[in-house]
Hints:
alpha+beta, 6-stranded antiparallel beta sheet, globular
Amino acid sequence: xxxxxxxxxxxxxxGRNLDLEYRFGEKVVITPENYRLExxxxxxxxxxxxxxxxxxxxxxxxLYAEATxxxxxxxxxLNFPNxxxxxxxxxxxxxxCPHELIPYFLGLYATVSELRPILADLxxxxxxxxxxxxxxxxxxxxxxxxxxIILEQMEDGLKxxxxxxxxxxxxxxxxxxxxxxxxYMNLSPSYGENKFSSKLNLKQYGMGMGAIGLPGDASPTSxxxxxxxxxxxxxxxxxxxxxxxxxxxILDSVSVVKGTTLTKDGLDELTLYSCCMNTTRGIYYYKxxxxxxxxxxxxxxxxxxxxxxxxxxxxxxxxxxxLN
Length: 324
């Protein structure tokens, strides 16, 4: 499970909660410009743009969960196990594996509008990086400071949806999630009003009663509604510190606490980390389940021009500031 958010104040922000029952060797990774990556279709490419995000690294290949590039194009892959359907390679199509999409798109394209034309020829194939790694069943949210889209390849083909909410979770497909929001159009952040009956003197006895009915469970549909409600009603000044703080508060509203959500095998699924990327300035902020202090890593000019990946281990032990 995961929740991804697109957010705009003065700058543009993009990030997510990554909810999982196991660690995957995640680190903050900067891929420089002109970095060559081999593709499973037999070709290769050199990145035009540098990118920063959370990834595991396998044989110098960054397996990004989410990232943003130096132009502000951002992308995240979220679990989509019941609906994703990947194909065998097809002639005259752009054949890319799931793990190749983020570095390929962010490495070569600057905006969503620039990326859109190639999506008509995209075929997401069922091949993993190496035989011992499974193919990740994903769908993707892609955004820049003006547009946000969803990419889903299912049994009946590749779907590209405009995303007016700037939210993505997991199954069911995005078009259902968007339609499902209509069921909650009565919710409001305002002071409660008696609509039950004019014959009864009903009064609000506590704050927040205008949003009674907002789902509180950890299911994908409920997290979608709750994240959309929090984001769309968010009030936030435009400075960097406040914007980043607000972004993490929105993610906190849909974070998963250890012990509250079990997989079918009885394992704890929890929010391993939360991240917020200032896509305008190329800054990656994160906090982990074990460390609630926000850590920031900049995509510096020096790192953009390196010949190798820049890899930052996560600070995953709680940082406490003692005042006495």
